[in-house]
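Journal club prep — side note

Before the paper discussion, L.F. wants everyone to see what a predicted structure for a comparable chain looks like in token form. Sequence:
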Amino acid sequence: MPTKTWTLHYAGHDIRVENYWNLFGYARERLFVDGRLTDEAAGFLRTSAKLEARLPQENGGLFEVKSLLSQGFLGLSVVCKIWVNSELVLGDVDAGFTSPGRGPI
């Protein structure tokens, strides 16, 4: 079961980011687009994760999704930002993580 999940529907696509962790320091982050796992990161004592997906579109363009997960204030929470085609479409607000004007990763 995911510890925390962020979901949104954008431009006809369902986007989901999941974060798992345990008390032994193991963490796993996963990015799904339209129900399909597109990127995953895992390891011990992680403080952040970058996930990306590039999906071809019928018009020849790309649907790009990028997410950044990081420890929140004092490491007591996990916060997430999601960009689609370089536009920030979801962003948690948490002291120590967000900064004005921070662009896509």
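L.F.'s comment for the group: DSSP finds no helices and eight strands in the chain. Keep this in mind when we get to the figures.
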